[in-house]
From TrEMBL:
Region (Disordered): 30-49, 259-284
Chain ranges of the Tubby C-terminal domain: 113-368
UniProt name for this protein: Tubby-like F-box protein
Gene3D superfamilies membership: 1.20.1280.50, Tubby Protein, Chain A
Coiled-coil portions: none
Alphabetical list of InterPro entries matching this protein: F-box-like_dom_sf (IPR036047), Tubby-like_C (IPR025659), Tubby_C (IPR000007), Tubby_C_CS (IPR018066)
Similarity remark: Belongs to the TUB family.
Species of the source: Lolium multiflorum
Length: 373
């Protein structure tokens, strides 16, 4: 049954009527009010949010904790992400319960992609390449197989920008172009493709260097907020050593990555606050050995790589450069990348690298490098 109200035209006529209140009976006009089941969507959302937020804090935390404990991996972990989307109180409860990848070894929120990976064991991922449009997709492995359906994490596309090459990295594969609002970072190479600079669209640490140029603005048409910087923040570099003499051996690479020190334990998907401090982590590729019987260079990938390729590599921290993260000795592989099919590659990373940083480093391996091979 529809509710009713007096129309605005009646209010104006009533104010001019000499009968005053007595004229209400004869002069009143009515118009249909929106029924409760036809209320605007935003009003219904406010009512639902208020209803869900009335739960006791102890009960709410226990609910989120039970959901988190019962969702070991995706797709079951979508229930944890759904809890954080109910309302602000549910999101705060999820943030207090869900542990970051460093502690749990799980990726839950988009912000987890820029947090350090697990310390005890590597996180297994794989990359699929689409040669037709130069697009690369990063997935989280859901099984122990080398490649499965996976959980989509990030996507990157390669563009030519004058004499340089750029990789735009984004959460959204349908919104992937320079200046896209969904971009989370990018990778830029020099003319020879031997030196790459990694940029983050949001300031990850205080004091991060910015790239200020018109071509590197985060938003192409307008700024969402005047408080959001339009610059890109440099978070790492990757360089390949020249090999003009064509001496025997695979590519040799060195990485200089900015990694957080004393990263917090909360994983808030709604806030992107810069870390207080960071330090430079130096990595180099692990030297392979020459196998006389096979007549090739070999590295032990522990069954995670099945196809020989010049793109395959393992990154380790040289002696004396692993502090303050304590990543172990030179035998501890921080990141390994290798080919398993024509357009499929495995990517295994661990603390202190994040999924975003590991993905960007692996992107540097694609493409021909005549000066290094």
């Amino acid at each position: 049954m529809a509710l009713w109200r007096r129309s605005s035209s009646w209010l104006s006529s009533c104010s001019r009527s000499p009968l005053g209140a007595a004229g209400i009976v004869n002069e009143a006009k009515v118009s249909p009010e929106i029924a409760p089941d036809e209320a605007p969507a935003d009003e219904e959302q406010d009512v639902d949010e208020e209803r869900w937020s009335r739960l006791l804090p102890e009960l709410l935390t226990d609910i989120v904790r039970r959901v988190d404990a019962g969702a070991e991996r995706w797709p079951a972990r979508r229930d944890v992400a759904a809890c954080a989307c109910v309302c602000r109180r549910w999101r705060d409860a999820a943030v207090s319960v869900v542990r970051p990848p460093l502690e749990s070894g799980r990726i839950t929120f988009p912000s987890s992609l820029k947090q350090s990976g697990p310390r005890d064991a590597p996180m297994h991922c794989f990359i699929r390449r689409n040669k037709s449009n130069s697009t690369f997709y990063l997935y989280l492995s859901l099984t122990h197989a080398l490649s499965d359906n996976g959980k989509f994490l990030l996507v990157a596309r390669r563009f030519r920008n004058g004499a340089n090459t750029e990789y735009i990295i984004s959460y959204n594969s349908d919104d992937l172009y320079p200046g896209s609002n969904s971009g989370v970072g990018k990778l830029r190479s020099d003319f020879l493709g031997t030196k790459f600079i990694m940029y983050d669209n949001q300031q990850p640490y205080h004091g991060t260097k910015t790239l200020k140029s018109r071509s590197s603005r985060r938003y192409s048409s307008k700024q969402i907020s005047p408080h959001v910087s339009g610059s890109n923040f440099e978070v790492g570099q990757v360089s390949y050593k020249f090999n003009f003499l064509k001496s025997r051996g695979p590519r040799r690479m060195q990485c200089s990555i900015q990694c957080p020190i004393g990263q917090g334990t909360a994983s808030d998907p709604s806030k992107d606050k810069p870390q207080s401090t960071s330090s430079t982590l130096s990595l180099r590729n692990k030297a392979p050995r020459w196998h006389e019987h096979l007549q090739c260079w070999c590295l032990n990938f522990h069954g995670r790589v099945t196809v020989a390729s010049v793109k395959n590599f393992q990154l380790v921290a040289p002696t004396g450069t692993s502090d303050p993260w304590g990543v172990g000795d030179e035998e501890t592989v921080i990141l390994q990348f290798g080919k398993i099919e024509d357009d499929a590659f495995t990517m295994d990373f661990r603390h202190p690298l994040s999924a975003f940083q590991a993905f960007a480093i692996c992107l540097t391996s694609f493409g021909t490098k005549l000066a290094c091979e």
